[in-house]
Predict the structure.
Amino acid sequence: MASVGANQKRAGERVAFIAGNWKMNLDHLQAIAFVQKLAWSLKDARHDFSDTEVAVFPPFTDLRSVQTLVSADKLELKYGAQDVSRHLSGAYTGEISAEFLKALDTPYVLVGHSERRQYHRETDDHIADKVAAAVKNGIVPVICVGETAEDLELYGPSAVPVSQLHAALALAGDAKEIVVAYEPVWAIGSGQAATPEQAEQVAEQLRYVIAEVLGGEIADATRILYGGSVKSSNIAGFLRQPNVDGALVGGASLDLAEFASIAQFRKHVGT
């Protein structure tokens, strides 16, 4: 892989990606209304989807409604699922197979979000299996990695995310496309984001991991997102970094005007 210094990210090299994780918010009727209004808002702003891709990640009960709306109205918005089972079928009550997501033409799925790791005790092995299930079904996994405040103090800013990504890619040798989201756990919902420089430091190391596992060509093409207290007021600083290609937005993605403003980050960056 070519070096990933400040001059490596040229205009048009990677399409920026702004993704909104709704978490456990909005029912299917609210989802329809939100997506319609978001699409109208971005259309009014003359948003260029070829330059900046925008996606929402609603709860499972909303996915069919969002998929139908996007398809019927030919919207340029994308959508993804918040999780996927490591199993393709079987006696796994409550789980959602990658095959089901594929049947809904779901382009993306979050894998390994910190809340899944923390509250559902998902291990590196679970996450590797989920990445493999998504890849097998042609769904792009958005692999979430990040350190806690304790990890940061003990190991520094990149050791844990690098280890998590290595593990997540263990069974993804034939992956043609992935997205990686660096979400420092200490920043999520805290109102205190990492600095753009901190995000860049970790993103650069993550790109080296991708090159090592999947090859330099895929590493150069992979979008690496930052997540954790992202707002329209700080998005510009992150997107100026050569290895940060977008954002995984949490709470702010439920605020229509704020999320649309984040998606229009080019206006803040001034490029």
Summary: The longest helix spans residues 196-214. The mean pLDDT is 92. Residues 9 and 242 are 5 Å apart (CA to CA). DSSP finds twelve helices and eight strands in the chain.
